[in-house]
Amino acid sequence: MALSTGKTAEVMFEKWKETYDHQDSMLTLVQKTEPDAGMMQNSSNVIWYPVQQHRPIISGWDLTGQETGIIEETYPAVLGTPDNDFIQQRADDLRTRTFWERAAEQSAKRQGTELNKNIADAIKDQGSLFYRSNATSGYDFIAEAQAIMNERQQVDNGRAFILNDRDTLTFATDLAARQTLQGMPDAVWKKGQLGQNIAGFDNVMTGSFLSNITGAADPAVTVTGDQSFAPSGGTVNATTKVVTNVDYREASLVVNDSSLLTVGDKFTIENSGVAVQSIGLADKNATGQAMTFTVIELTDGTHIKVYPKPIAADDPALTTLEAAYANINTQILDAATITRLNIDASNKTNIFFDRSAIEVIGGSIPAELFAQYDGMKVITDSLANGLQLYMIYDGDMVQMTFRFRIFVWYGITVCNPSNCGCAVTY
How many whole angstroms separate alpha carbon 191 and alpha carbon 89? Predict the structure, then answer.
């Protein structure tokens, strides 16, 4: 019985791993790290990472008194809870290998899709880039995202665009007719990759795991008071020397009525009808396009938290160094209006992102300790995408049952919401 049970577990583990590894995973398109397990335990599964600094340009020969310090912004990466499949079966269910192979295959497909869905939902909910388009050309539809990212001078570490199935159907003929896709094997389409280097995106794929973004009419929400935000690298207590980290991504806006908004809403801001514009991060020139934000929290009746933090190039309160982090052309002023962009009741998203915008951290357990527990066996291996796969199983001779738990453990962080987002058609 022990031998056959062990073989059954190994068959299921190997089939699970084989199936999972052959699925297209969004994890290969984003950043993947695995912090030290002991460090993560001591920090309650949260680790703070620094982000790219910005530096000012100071003109002149004599720079007396103009020296600056360094602002190192940070964000928290959070390790979530494991995704599990947990099954108990009686001894008479262990008699055919194909039964367990089918179970393993379905379990791996489901968990692979769950990982893709979780990454896509994080981009949809937290990414600050957004546009609606009625373009009939697939190239034009995708190129809009590239233009937005380029004009803001965002880093390009490899960009991807994922189309939902219906929009793929709409744009497939146009995309397939382009020179960049001619002569590509049919297998490329079957695997979900529509092509490479389309409208500047390294990977353009289709994904059935993309969810809807809901919306409503433009709300009558206005900003209360002039808003001023500066970059912050954290604080150090003068007495205890304790460092307090600050999440660089978020800002709290004061509004007249937060109940008219919903978490996940995308919006622009207008001062007296004039849009607050995004600017190039390098040259600080206005792009001519409205800056877009996303709501991440309705704090109370008059406060909302948004991504990204709006830092105005013309804010007189900013120092020379702080102004180097500016991402909008002008301050958000009292009575500025908020305009919701996701105005469709429900619309299937398409997502786009730079590799550096999303970070997945993998978790690990002390598998060798579980192997020492009475009657418990452990199998572990690395998946092709870098995550660790675990299987723990045991048996109960009283009930003649076999249990197994197979899982992966990870957390998803949108570390740069300004470099990812979603687009919808109408």
Answer: 34
Residues 6+ apart with CB under 8 A from 129: 145, 148, 149, 292, 352, 418, 419, 420, 421, 422
- Residue 237: pLDDT band (50, 70, 90) is confident
Q: Is 75 helix (H, G, I), strand (E, B) or coil?
A: strand
Parallel, antiparallel, or unpaired for β 203-206 and 159-163? parallel
- On whether the CB atoms of residues 55 and 284 are closer than 8 A, the answer is no
Taking Cα atoms as reference points, which of 350, 362, 385, 410 lies closest to residue 127? 350
Residue 50 forms beta bridges with which residues?
Answer: 74
**Residue pair 367/226 in contact by the 8 Å Cβ criterion:** no
CB-based contacts of 163, cutoff 8 Å, min separation 6: 138, 171, 194, 204, 205, 206, 207, 350
Task: Name the residue among 35, 25, 348 with its Cα closest to residue 163.
Answer: 348
Beta strand 410-414 pairing with 358-362:
antiparallel
Tens-place pLDDT, residues 118-142: 999 999 999 999 999 999 999 999 9
Q: How far is CA 310 from the centre of its chain?
A: 20
The DSSP secondary-structure symbol of 302 reads T
39-80 pLDDT per residue, tens: 899 899 999 999 989 999 999 999 999 999 999 999 999 999
Does 189 have pLDDT greater than 50? no
Could you write out the DSSP letters of every residue in 348-364?
E-EEEEEGGGEEEEE--
Band (pLDDT 50/70/90 cuts) for residue 179 is: low
DSSP-assigned states of every residue in 266-279 = EEEEEETTEEPEEE
Q: Model-level pTM? A: 0.90
Between CA 239 and CA 241, with CA 240 as vertex, the angle to 5 degrees is: 95
Angle between helices 165-176 and 138-151 (to 10 degrees): 100
Instruction: Please tell me the distance from the alpha carbon of residue 10 to that of residue 60, in angstroms, as a whole number.
Output: 70
Q: How far apart are CA 253 and CA 9, in angstroms?
A: 53
Q: What is the dihedral of CA 33, 34, 36, 38, to 10 degrees?
A: 130
> Which two tokens mark 148?
């937005």
The model's pLDDT over 374-419, given as tens digits with 9 standing for 90+, comes to: 667 888 999 888 899 999 888 888 888 888 899 999 999 999 999 9
